[in-house]
Design brief:
heterodimer; A: 656 residues; alpha/beta; six-stranded antiparallel β-sheet; five-stranded parallel β-sheet; 18 helices; B: 212 residues; alpha+beta; four-stranded antiparallel β-sheet; two-stranded antiparallel sheet; 15% strand
Chain lengths: 656, 212
């Protein structure tokens, strides 16, 4: 079964175990840019063969300097002085600077400014390399070359500090099959999501340098679980960089979820508090409104009066239309009646005037005013012809009949006028009444509106209650509304996939890791006797990494032992790792160690001497191992490190 | 309806004006002449007031405002109560300087019937002013006709009142007064002079309200 499982690809296995589709797994893996790293690390060895640096001192001393440490090879080498502050640390720091591509924080900035050029020649598995820089105005320029006989093959050129660091990082990571180590750093505030940080070669190289800080068993950076990641990387385990990347993502997702939970909980709490406040406010307002006069009746009355006002308005409009029409009829009939009256009047006047003038005989010609004689008058009466112009005088018509007709007409038009007047007056009265009603209704509306405005306090409280009821609804915490969103709800369960990926990835190196850790533990115990730690009875290195010790019949751990013991355990842990790697042909450590001032702080000369004696033997056992120690001179150091293996500043001399 | 009158109606109307607005007159050559009406323009002006009761009512109101004689206000009110502006209006045409209608034919009836005689003050060959000499018979005809035909009583009373209101004003003065009103009514030359009853009625009510 186990064999069968191993035959399944990494992604297929994750998909199978997480019950997700291969596509889903791939999408998550691609999203987080996770690389598969199934290869074990095959040991390669680096040793320095030459260091040069030169420049001009400033301050108390202004001399030129030109330091050179040549003919280095595997074995133990020393940078030694009788007194402190003679330039030992600077020598180690320049080596670090050249190897890492960046100087460490332990290098004094002022001293670094003095250095105008530096170079380091080193060999990686028989290949010779040279890194050479010039340093002006705090920027470096230079190149990295491989040397074959008399030929230099340029690997890269750089023109700034960043480029130099990038160049060395890429070169070393490739050479030793390493990978950048990612880590997740939590934010200082718990409400914020932390950030992913990438440790490049500068951090990886910390496992090569042992300064005076022994808090971490591996490297000198205690943060981000770097110690653990460095050790597993240098153990040469397969899949380790994949594993590290997955762990980082797991932390990131956890952080995001945690922060999401914190915000969610806070929001929930805030809503609950606000809900209680709203309930209390509502209670107060509901009590208050009971004490305020009711205005419901007024609103109903106002509504009713407004309806009646509308109805009345519509009736007036209809009546207006009727009145306009009737007004036209009324005017027409009135005109007829007046015309009839005028006709009768004219008729009567004409008849009267006619009668008056007919009785008068003409006395003269109206034109010439000559008198009309009696004969002509007589003739006019007898033959009915005008005495002046001789025109025939016609008999008048039957005036009584004509007058009667005219009077009948007038009677009829007066009757019609009266009828329409009655109707018109009736409609007009209706109109007046409706206008009056409309006016009254408007007055009532004004009155009710005025009365409503007399309840401002009640209106205000009613509005406030309405607002609070809406808020209450909004802030009601229901089970459904305030359940935390389930991961299930997300389209892809990333957390589950990452968790399974971690399990599966770990399973791919766990067995080898266990074996290697056990072997390294055994090797540490063996070596511990060589460096004066004979009182240790058993040692167990874990993957964390922690070092559990049985010493003098009791159990202790790395963090609890003395500084002198820490120094030796830290050095021999790395050497044990190298030793096992060499035997198993599995590992990524370059096989060089730079140890600065082992006698500093609370480490006694005795401890240092034990360490140096042990290391001397170990360099014999591990012929590729190169150890460079910067130390104050002691007899043991001077005895153990050959003259041609050291730079020694005697008395008040300076190393450079 | 446009009120149109017969030639006898016009003749009797003019006779009332001539008689009631005449002065006593004695002609040393003709003892039958008893009165004189001075001025053709005056005759036209008075005829306009008979034919346009609304304009006359307006004149009464102006007179009332001048001399505060309540009777004039009452008569103006009665003119409107009796709807005279509608029933008694006999339209006239606006001519250059006021109301005009050729009355010669009508006057010739009065001449022919031996009631009046036209006279004139001549300068060179042109007659400057027409006067109308009234025979005694004209006075008798008016007196008898008013008794016999009550319908003509209105003319008798109205022409007496117009004579009273006109006082000593000559034709030119009366026409000027009317001309202001006609222009105010914005009548086109040659057009029928319109009624101003609405405006006068408003003015009547205004005066009544401030006179209480």
């Amino acid at each position: 079964m186990e064999n069968q499982l191993k035959k399944i690809g990494w992604i297929d296995e994750i998909a199978s175990n997480s019950k997700c589709s291969v596509e889903e797994v791939k999408s998550v893996i691609q999203k987080y840019e996770i690389q598969q790293s199934p290869n074990i690390g095959i040991p390669k060895h680096l040793h320095i063969i030459e260091l040069n640096f030169s420049g001009i001192k400033e301050g108390n001393f202004t001399n030129d300097f030109n330091f050179s440490f040549e003919n280095l090879k595997p074995g133990i080498f020393g940078v030694i002085s009788d007194n402190n502050l003679r330039g030992k640390t600077t020598v180690l720091e320049v080596i670090k600077w050249m190897l890492r591509g960046s100087s460490s924080s332990l290098m004094q900035e002022g001293v670094k400014q003095w250095i105008k050029s530096a170079s380091l020649k080193f060999i990686i598995d028989k290949e010779l390399y040279l890194v050479k820089v010039t340093h002006t105005q705090n920027e470096v320029k230079g190149k990295l070359v491989s040397i074959s006989g008399e030929f230099e093959n340029q690997i890269s050129e750089f023109y700034s500090n960043d480029e130099f660091e990038g160049c060395m990082s890429e070169f070393m990571i490739k050479q030793f099959s390493l990978d950048r180590i990612s880590a997740f750093r939590n934010a200082p505030i718990q409400e914020e999501v932390g950030s992913k940080v990438n440790h490049n070669w500068s951090s990886l190289a910390s496992a090569l340098f042992i300064s005076t800080n022994y808090s971490s068993l591996f490297g000198d950076i205690p943060t981000d679980g770097l110690s653990n990641r460095l050790m597993n990387m240098y153990l040469g385990l397969p899949w380790i960089s994949t594993y590290i990347a997955l762990k980082t993502i797991e932390s990131q997702i956890k952080s995001e979820n945690r922060v999401e939970d914190i915000h969610f909980d806070k929001e929930l709490e805030r809503k609950k508090e606000r809900y209680q406040e709203i309930i209390e406010e509502l209670r107060v307002k509901e009590e208050l409104i009971k004490t305020l006069p009711e205005n419901k009746g007024v609103i109903e009355k106002l509504s009713e009066v407004r309806d009646r006002y509308g109805l009345c308005g519509r009736q007036i409009t209809n009546l207006d239309r009727q009145l306009r029409k009737q007004s036209e009829d009324f005017d027409a009939i009135k005109e007829t009646k007046d015309s009839d009256k005028i006709r009768i009047n004219n008729f009567k006047e004409d008849m009267a005037a006619h009668a008056v003038f007919k009785r008068l005989n003409p006395t003269c010609c109206p034109h010439c005013e000559s008198e009309i004689d009696k004969e002509k008058i007589k003739k006019e009466k007898s033959n009915q012809h005008c005495a002046i112009c001789d025109s025939a005088l016609l008999e008048s018509e039957d005036a009584e009949v004509l007058l009667s007709d005219l009077e009948l007409n007038l009677k009829a038009s007066e009757k019609a006028y009266k009828e329409i007047q009655i109707e018109y007056v009736k409609l007009n009265n209706n109109h007046s009444q409706l206008i009056s009603s409309l006016f009254q209704l408007q007055k009532q509306i004004n009155q009710y509106e005025y009365e409503l405005n007399e309840f401002p306090e009640r209106n205000k409280v009613e509005k406030e209650i309405t607002r609070l009821l809406i808020l209450k609804e909004e802030y009601t915490v229901s089970e459904r509304k305030f359940n935390k969103p389930l991961i299930k709800d997300k389209r892809i369960d990333e957390k589950k996939i990452i968790t399974k990926a971690i399990e599966i990835t770990k399973s791919r190196f766990e067995k080898l890791q266990k074996e290697l850790l056990q072997e390294v533990s055994d090797e540490i115990l063996r070596i511990s006797k060589l460096v004066g730690l004979g009182n240790i009875e058993s040692i167990q290195l874990s993957s964390i990494p922690t070092l559990s010790l049985n010493k003098d019949g009791s159990t202790t751990s790395y963090s609890k032992v003395s500084e002198g013991e820490k120094l030796r355990l830290k050095v021999i842990t790395t050497i044990a790792l190298l030793s096992v790697a060499e035997k198993r042909k599995v590992g990524r450590h370059p096989g060089i160690l730079l140890i600065d001032s082992p006698g500093a702080q609370e480490v006694s000369d005795k401890d240092v001497n034990s360490l140096i004696e042990g290391l001397k033997k170990l360099t014999t056992e591990l012929p590729f191992l190169q150890i460079i120690i910067a130390s104050r001179a002691t007899d043991v150091i001077l005895n153990q490190i050959d003259k041609n293996h050291r730079k020694y500043a005697k008395g008040n001399d300076y190393l450079w | 309806m446009m009120n149109t009158t017969s030639v006898y109606q016009d003749a009797i109307r003019l006779l009332f004006i001539l008689v009631n607005a005449s002065e006593e007159f004695c002609d040393e050559f003709d003892s039958s002449i008893k009165g004189i009406f001075r001025g053709k323009a005056r005759l036209y002006a008075m005829d306009f007031w008979v034919r346009y009761p609304d304009y006359f009512a307006n004149e009464l109101l102006q007179k009332y405002l001048e001399i505060k004689k309540a009777r004039y206000l009452e008569i103006a009110e009665t003119i409107f109560e009796d709807k005279e502006p509608d029933l008694r209006n006999i339209p006239m045409i606006r001519y250059l300087f006021g109301a005009y209608e050729k009355l010669d034919n009508t006057l010739s009836i009065l001449v022919s019937k031996g009631l009046i005689k036209q006279s004139g003050q001549k300068s060179n060959t042109k007659i400057d002013q027409y006067d109308y000499l009234l025979f005694e018979k004209a006075f008798e005809v008016i007196r008898d006709a008013t008794k016999e035909f009550p319908i003509l009583k209105w003319y008798d009373e109205r022409t007496q009142l117009i004579s009273e209101i006109s006082g000593n004003k000559g034709g030119a003065a009366l026409k000027d007064r009317q001309y202001e009103q006609i222009v105010y009514a914005k009548t086109k030359l040659g057009g029928i002079i319109p009624s101003i009853k609405e405006e006068v009625h408003i003015e009547l009510n205004r005066i009544k309200s401030i006179s209480k």
